[in-house]
Each structure stands twice: as structure tokens, then as C-alpha cells.
Specification:
Oligomer: single chain
Helix content: 10-25%
Structural class: alpha+beta
Number of domains: 1
Radius of gyration: 14 Å
Largest sheet: 8 strands, antiparallel
Strand order of the largest sheet: 1-2-8-7-6-5-4-3
Shape: globular
Number of strands: 8
CATH topology: Alpha-D-Glucose-1,6-Bisphosphate, Chain A, domain 4
CATH class: Alpha Beta
Distance between the termini: 22 Å
Number of helices: 3
Length: 151
């Protein structure tokens, strides 16, 4: 499910894993790169660094704003060397128990124009990869690594 507004994109994906498991894919660098990125430096506490080299040349950067174990993560977000500077937008992720799985609700706000469209495509690409990885499956090689796909 995708919802877009004037300055945000919101998406949901159901993951066949517990909130505890899915939460770790947003806070553990080794798990992050199973679904998004080639390298990650994460310090998942309020004020801690969030830095993910997503494609081998495009690096998302910001900091953790809010971390509620197994329930919610909020990250300030942007791109190094980009018109959307590090920390200039906000990614809010809620982990909602759903039977034996988890609904991941992601809202990325503070986006405008082309940036809104690019991030909608980006999250549409990466959230299904999260669903695979967090469920213990191989998300496979990311076709955006080393390409212009994410731009």
C-alpha cells in the first residue's frame, strides 16, 4: 500500500517475522545490508549516527531521532552530495504486530517534487527486500548497486 501527499510518502509491507526481528533490520548494520546498502554505520540511539552507503556511491546519512525497541524508529535522513542534504527529511517506521508477522509502516516526510517521486520508487524497491530478508530469505543482489537506478 502506497500513499503520497504533498511532502511525504507512506508505505506498508507485511513481514513474516516478529517485530523484534524486523526492528533489528533497522538497527543492526549487518542486517541492514541484507536488504539495503553495501555498507552501514548505525548507532541506534537518539542522536546516534545513521549512515548507509546504499548503492556503492549514494550514501544516506542522518541520525536516529527516536528509538523505541521493537515498536518504532525515527531517523533524520538525507543524502551526502545531494540537493537533499543529510538529516533534512524524516523517516518514521512503526512495527505493528500482526498475528505471526509484523506490519511495517514507513512514512518519509519533508520531501518535495522530484525527491518525493524518487523516494517513493526507492521505498517501493527496498521494502519488499526487507520483507524477504527479515523473514529469513535471501533478498538477492540489489540491481541498484553500481547502477543509476536509484537516481
Amino acid at each position: 500500500m502506497v500513499t503520497a501527499g504533498d511532502d511525504f510518502v507512506e508505505m506498508e509491507v507485511r513481514v513474516a517475522a516478529t517485530p523484534e526481528t524486523v526492528f533489528s533490520f533497522f538497527t543492526d548494520p549487518a542486517k541492514m545490508v541484507l536488504w539495503k546498502g553495501v555498507d552501514a554505520a548505525l548507532d541506534s540511539r537518539p542522536g546516534g549516527i545513521y549512515r548507509v552507503n546504499v548503492t556503492g556511491r549514494d550514501t544516506a546519512s542522518g541520525e536516529y531521532v527516536e528509538v523505541v525497541p521493537y515498536s518504532r524508529v525515527v531517523i533524520s535522513w538525507g543524502w551526502e552530495d545531494s540537493p537533499i542534504p543529510p538529516g533534512s527529511t524524516r523517516v518514521e517506521v512503526d512495527f505493528i504486530p500482526d498475528g505471526d508477522g509484523t506490519i511495517v509502516r514507513l512514512r518519509h516526510s519533508g520531501l518535495r517534487g522530484e525527491g518525493l517521486q524518487q523516494h517513493e520508487l526507492g521505498w517501493e524497491h527496498y521494502l519488499p527486500r526487507l520483507a524477504l530478508a527479515a523473514a529469513g530469505r535471501d533478498a538477492g543482489p540489489d540491481p541498484w548497486v553500481g547502477s543509476d537506478m536509484g537516481r
